[in-house]
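Researcher: Please generate the 3D structure of the following complex. Treat every line as part of one assembly.
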Amino acid sequence: MCLAIPARVVELLPAEQAVVDLDGVRKTISMLLVEDAAVGDFVLVHVGYALSRIDPDEAEQTLALMREAMALEDAR
Amino acid sequence: MKYVDEFRDGALARGIAARIRATVDPDRDYRIMEFCGGHTHAISRYGLEDLLPGNLRLVHGPGCPVCVLPIGRLDQAIALARRPEVILCCYGDMMRVPASGRDSLIRAKAAGADVRMVYSSTDALAVAQAAPEREVVFFAIGFETTTPATAAALSQARALGLKNFSVLCNHVLTPSAMRAILDASGPDAVRVDAFIGPGHVSAVIGTAPYEPFAETYGKPIAIAGFEPLDVLQAVLMLVEQFRDGRCVVENQYARAVGRDGNRKAQALVAETLVLRESFEWRGLGSIPFSALRVADAYAGFDAERRFGLDYTPVPDHPACECGTILRGAKRPNECRIFATGCTPENPVGACMVSPEGACAAHYLYGRFRDLAAE
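Model: Done. Output below.
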């Protein structure tokens, strides 16, 4: 139920709507709940609403931490 | 897909799992509750339990809104759907959930009730605009993730001056359920050492509401995303907290969640919905201040007031263990009708219907592990 999917904003529409692209599937969603999302940003989409903007730097940091954990393990 | 594929990397998963195994104390056991049904599904789907050490058990929590909604609430929706003037709009998850007398919304629809499955609350608004002569009721369920969409629909319905739209509000609150689990005593008590916190609920409410659980209850929490690497990394964060003697809220899902959450969504919810004094949950019983109803300023859009609905509690099927499974006290395969009398095709309990229900997840993926274990 709380499933939310990262999708790329491809076009901002009037009335706080936007077209998002998810691996080629395009859908018009509401941007009412997020601020400052721009074309090219990734947003988490849940029941037709963007819930939050995905922070690319934080995503990279999370992956870096994961790689670090693995490297630590490989070094053992 | 970006932000999906990289978080499903098998080699990294094995690396993190090895780190978890190297971090756990072999002389103790760990019981970590994944609150959210989305996590339950990911854990089963990706076989994450196979990667974890034997002394670390993941306990499935009650974070499946379809599962925790008691029969009496579903009966209300079905009764409304049967009224000739009503069009009942609901999310697809609700259609096959068993109600009283093994009735369901899909059976009511087959018998002629106008039940429409919608993807979004905005679709329900469009139905109301297209059918001004009918009463359109949106059957709203879900945790904090889904609540802002309902709040937005209420606000929009008022702005549009809709006279034929109302909401049957059954939104429930995560922290209240966590507290109920930790406060349970006697036979209902379930040991939980730490929580994997729900990532998408937290995108809305932030990480701050969990801080009392670390501070007062002494339970470490890691808010996690929903890809397999996210869940594994959250488990690693938790076992590291135990190793280091720390007890805090950590945010594994920083790419989507901040400490304050989504303020805009919170404001919209605060304007349109208010706390209920008490709400009955399947499995957890009546919990004070654990759910929301439509605010008085929006009373005209409240289906409960509009149709004069009363709530009558209805017990679950006597053989169904959904209640104990939702509390984390039993596993799906400990229910005697699991995969025999109760299957996804012919469910007896709600946990077998929703793909994030513990029973459905175990039926789809996990029961093959049981066979291998035998």
